[in-house]
Amino acid sequence: QVQLVESGGGLVQAGGSLRLSCAASGSIFRVNAMGWYRQTPGKQRELVATITSGESINYADSVKGRFTISRDNAKNTVELQMTSLRPEDTAVYYCNAAIQRRAYLTIQNYWGQGTQVTVSS
């Protein structure tokens, strides 16, 4: 089994910062791309940032210059440093990882349980 466990959400005032962390554990051969997505009630889950195992990075336009994604390949972790937070960043943030459990298995997509980020104005 594979688990993604997130931490670091919470309540912050506009202009503040938060750091989200996610650790992948379990039966893992290789972790490929990792990333963060977010979702608000009634809306589709949207991409925030992704990072490949080679550290190629992609950000949503709405967070460029404010959020920084990073990963530790040795620990199978991914982090999202969020600065200059805005009320519109309020959402449940989900960690995502494309993981190969065995060399002979295909890559599967895994999600964390989600962590709430609330930015007050």
Can you put this structure into words, describing what you see?
The chain is an all-beta fold and 121 residues long. It has no helices and 11 strands. The strands form 2 sheets. Strands 2, 4, 5, 6, 9, 10 and 11 form a 7-stranded mixed β-sheet that branches. Strands 1-3-8-7 form a 4-stranded antiparallel β-sheet, with no helix packed on it. A hairpin with a 4-residue loop joins strand 7 and strand 8. The termini are far apart. The relative contact order is 0.32.
Please supply descriptive tags for the structure shown above:
121 residues; mainly beta; seven-stranded mixed sheet
Radius of gyration (CA) equals 14 Å
Average predicted confidence as pLDDT: 96
Main sheet specs = 7 strands, mixed
Number of helices: 0
Task: Furnish the topology, listing elements before pairings.
Layout: E1 2-7, E2 10-13, E3 18-26, E4 30-39, E5 46-51, E6 57-59, E7 67-72, E8 77-82, E9 91-100, E10 108-111, E11 115-120
Parallel strand pairs: 2-11
Antiparallel strand pairs: 1-3, 3-8, 4-5, 4-9, 5-6, 7-8, 9-10, 9-11
In short:
The protein is an all-beta fold. 0% of the residues lie in helices and 58% in strands.
